[in-house]
UniProtKB/TrEMBL annotation:
PROSITE patterns from the UniProt entry: GNAT
Record CDD domains: NAT_SF
Keyword Cytoplasm on entry: no
GO molecular function: acyltransferase activity, transferring groups other than amino-acyl groups
Pfam families referenced in this protein's UniProt entry, alphabetically: Acetyltransf_1
Species of origin: Pseudomonas marincola
Superkingdom in the source lineage: Bacteria
Keyword annotations from UniProtKB, A to Z: Acyltransferase, Transferase
Taxonomic placement: Bacteria, Pseudomonadati, Pseudomonadota, Gammaproteobacteria, Pseudomonadales
SUPFAM superfamilies: Acyl-CoA N-acyltransferases (Nat)
UniProt-listed InterPro entries: Acyl_CoA_acyltransferase, Bact_Acetyltransf, GNAT_dom
Protein name: GNAT family N-acetyltransferase
Length: 151
């Protein structure tokens, strides 16, 4: 398995797995909109996407997408691990571990103060994977969200 940073050339390879990721979380597939969304992120350099590819072919095993943010208190960059997904037939092959380790290395190289991730309360598999590479549950801050409606 090799990990590469996605470019626009990977868009057709990435989109179908991104669609499966969205469906996993209960969203409608919208393949054209999904592709356009990813294309914008890559063109504008608004995110960093890592791909896990099978060694013998360009088969996509999984991906993760990180967005930059900043900490005013630490005066440094923060990376938000927004998306991570492993293809069903590639699970239990340490794909997520390799993607997360690559993301962690990138965060160190960019002098980030931390990485953040959120996941479903009942996603025990993800909890174990995140904790295995050093993520800890935030006991200091309570996080809130404010849905913005079109009304």
């Amino acid at each position: 398995m090799r990990i590469v940073q996605a470019t626009l050339e990977h868009l057709d390879l990435l989109t179908p797995l991104f669609v499966k990721y969205r469906e996993f979380y209960g969203e409608l597939p919208f393949p054209d909109s999904s592709k356009a969304f990813l294309e914008k992120r890559l063109r504008r350099k608004e995110s960093v996407i890592y791909l896990a590819l099978a060694d013998e072919e360009d088969k996509l095993l999984g991906f993760c997408q990180l967005y930059p943010s900043y900490s005013s208190l630490a005066l440094k960059r923060v990376w938000i691990l927004n998306d991570i997904y492993v293809a069903e037939d590639a699970r239990r092959q340490l794909v997520a571990d390799r993607l997360l380790q690559t993301a962690k290395n990138m965060a160190k190289e960019t002098n980030a103060v931390r990485m953040r991730v959120s996941t479903s309360l009942d996603n025990e598999v993800a909890h174990k994977v995140y904790e295995s590479i050093g993520f800890t549950v935030d006991e200091q801050f309570k996080n809130y969200t404010l849905p913005i409606s079109k009304d």
